[in-house]
Backbone:
């Protein structure tokens, strides 16, 4: 692949996933713009990128698309399988369709935007990533979420934020239930300002009214193991 | 002369069922209302390598000259798929132990000792530190459910990746590092508030089951451009199926940890009552590899209660390619050293029995984040002690292998072994000494 800003097209009907990823990895330290055709649900597509790259994928992707992404911008025009942008460090991953389980799992940084819905465990063990889901999310989302923000335009499944640490959850719809130690918290002006700034980064600041969101986070009652809390564990 | 003024009495007799330790645990539980947490592995007596003996050469087998004829000890790990397999000079590696559970000095010492002997160390739950990367010539990076400190840069600068499914002390369990050990540095590495009790999940967050694991392993290979050997570590519980599924999922190396394998902190009831002994786990795992035509192609590393070169030789004879040590390595560094007896007494224990590693008060400066205690451990000296210990283990293993007529420790085989007990014979699949009887396999 070239190191110019010109668009290069890679057709996965003709090129192996290994060759695509190897080429993208070889772009480290350079910039570029790559369009991927015929992903046909390939797993680990654009995983492990570390470059000022824009990767556009025309179609659905399988597991772990953009896993451990650093700096790159990955746009999927389609839906994504489990583990989308898992352990992302920085950059932007945007999926125009839906995402399956564990979207943004353990992510440490960067921004993940899903235009549709996500399945269970969205943002599980998130460690600093920001996630914006324009639809609804499944159960056990933000389980043990440590840091970062999860924004949901729709509803959530059961046990939102179970055993949550310091991550911030903003939900416009209704959580089916909250997990252990996850509570609703006051939504103050600085929270609304921070949410607006995040939505601006996601290109969705004017799509919704930040005043319509409710905030959830940790009650911090499980931070120290105590027998009196045994029923919560 | 008997004192006939007092009636004859029997001496006080303790119950075998309600022995003094059990009674003390009942009293402790009644007082606190919470289970006991400790470090280390199973302390109960279970069938182990001590229950096996080597036969040695005789008329039918020629021994090798002890000090003159070569007996190889090298091990190649990960040649199945990795572009850059690992070559160890000795078949003994250092098991995964985290910075956090151990001091930075202890991690450095492990790296120094292992590197001096040409073998590997392993990170733990909490990420990779500069100390261990800098001092470990071969470093295995653990990929754990918590993903604390996980990042692609460390993944790429590791020499191998170990996907941890479970460990012998607690198959099916997660982890806990109490707040006393969550120092500012440990907290930062794990993205957690300082001083809280840190929990580690028992399941990986983004895969479930062997089909997912295969895709996860492929992702790790893609991210690292297929360079790194990928291990899968399991706690010994269903070793035949776990080994087979790990191989099916694409592992280069299977790490099998028996119930004597240590942990930084887990419930006593978990350590002593979940999982099976190392001895019982090896043959089923080897059978799985053999059934798949993968024995010696996918390497098997065995851990849990390995203490000396005889244990190494016995594990290899049963089919392992290498072993891993954790507790023994810590003891070599200075853990539980009688020189700190007064301080162990002050902690309510005694040298040799100290296992409250989670409290961070280790007088030897190993299982602690207290800077004053940690400073007691000299990484240079402790590293040299570990290197010495590894050298002795290797020499002992070679001594046995030569006596059995083997020019490489991997040539040891089950036929070189007999068992002292029926249980060990059944578990190891070798005859009871003096008979040709292997329980469950016929004979007499």
Residues:
């Amino acid at each position: 692949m070239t190191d110019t800003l010109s668009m290069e097209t890679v057709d996965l009907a003709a090129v192996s996933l290994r060759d695509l990823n190897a080429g993208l990895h070889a772009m480290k330290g350079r910039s570029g713009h790559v369009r991927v055709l015929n992903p046909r649900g390939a797993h680990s597509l654009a995983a492990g990128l570390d470059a000022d790259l824009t990767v556009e994928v025309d179609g659905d992707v399988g597991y772990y698309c953009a896993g451990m992404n650093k700096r790159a911008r990955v746009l999927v025009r389609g839906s994504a399988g489990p583990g989308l942008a898992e352990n992302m460090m920085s950059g932007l991953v945007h999926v125009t369709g839906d995402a399956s389980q564990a979207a943004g799992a353990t992510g440490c940084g960067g921004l993940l935007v899903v235009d549709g819905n996500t399945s269970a465990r969205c943002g599980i063990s998130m460690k600093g990533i920001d996630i914006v889901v324009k639809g609804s999310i499944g159960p056990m989302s933000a389980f043990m979420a440590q840091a970062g923000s999860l924004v949901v335009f729709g509803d959530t499944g059961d046990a939102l934020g179970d055993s949550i640490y310091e991550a911030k959850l903003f939900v416009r719809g209704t959580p089916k239930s909250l997990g252990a130690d996850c509570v609703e918290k006051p939504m103050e002006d600085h929270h609304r300002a921070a949410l607006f700034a995040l939505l601006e980064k996601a290109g969705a600041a004017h799509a919704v009214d930040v005043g319509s969101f409710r905030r959830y986070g940790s009650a911090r009652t499980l931070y120290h193991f105590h027998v009196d809390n045994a029923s919560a564990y | 002369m008997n004192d006939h003024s007092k009636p004859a009495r029997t001496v006080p007799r303790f119950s075998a069922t309600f022995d003094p330790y059990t009674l003390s645990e009942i009293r402790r539980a009644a007082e606190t209302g919470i289970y006991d947490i400790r470090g280390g592995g199973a302390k109960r007596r279970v069938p182990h390598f001590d229950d096996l003996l080597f036969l040695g050469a005789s008329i039918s087998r020629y021994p090798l000259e002890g000090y003159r004829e070569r007996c190889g000890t090298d091990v190649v790990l990960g040649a199945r798929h990795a572009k850059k397999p690992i070559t160890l000079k000795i078949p003994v590696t250092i098991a995964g132990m985290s910075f956090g559970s151990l001091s930075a000095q202890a991690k450095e010492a492990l790296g120094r000792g292992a590197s001096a002997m040409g073998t590997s160390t392993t990170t733990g739950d909490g990420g990779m530190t500069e100390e261990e990367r800098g001092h470990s010539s071969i470093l295995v990076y653990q990929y754990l459910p918590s993903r604390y400190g996980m990042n692609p840069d460390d993944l790429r600068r590791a020499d191998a990746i170990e996907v941890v499914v479970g460990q012998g002390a607690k198959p099916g369990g997660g982890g806990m590092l109490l707040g006393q050990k969550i120092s500012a540095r440990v907290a930062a590495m794990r993205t957690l508030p300082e001083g809280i009790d840190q929990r580690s999940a028992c399941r990986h967050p983004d895969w479930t089951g062997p089909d997912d694991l295969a895709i996860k392993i492929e992702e790790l290979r893609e991210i690292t451009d297929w360079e790194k050997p990928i291990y899968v570590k399991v706690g010994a519980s269903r070793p035949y199926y776990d080994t087979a599924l790990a191989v099916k999922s694409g592992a280069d190396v299977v790490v099998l940890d028996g119930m004597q394998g240590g942990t930084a902190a887990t419930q006593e009831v978990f350590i002593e009552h979940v999982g099976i002994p190392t001895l019982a786990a090896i043959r089923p795992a080897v059978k799985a590899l053999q059934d798949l035509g993968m024995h010696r192609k996918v390497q098997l590393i065995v851990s849990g209660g390995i203490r000396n070169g005889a244990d190494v030789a016995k594990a290899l004879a049963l089919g392992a390619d290498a072993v891993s040590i954790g507790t023994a390595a810590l003891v070599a560094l200075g853990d539980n050293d009688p020189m700190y007896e007064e301080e162990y007494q002050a902690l309510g224990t005694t040298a040799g029995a100290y296992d409250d590693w989670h409290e961070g008060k280790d007088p030897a400066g190993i299982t602690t984040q207290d800077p004053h205690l940690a400073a007691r451990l000299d990484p240079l000296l402790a590293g040299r002690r570990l290197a010495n210990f590894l050298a002795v283990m290797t020499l002992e293993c070679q001594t046995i292998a030569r006596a059995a007529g083997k020019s490489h420790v991997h040539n040891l085989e089950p036929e070189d072994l007999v068992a002292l007990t029926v249980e060990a014979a059944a578990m190891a699949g070798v005859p009871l000494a003096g008979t040709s009887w292997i329980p469950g396999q016929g004979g007499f």
User: Anything to note?
Assistant: The helical segments of chain A are 17-25, 189-201.
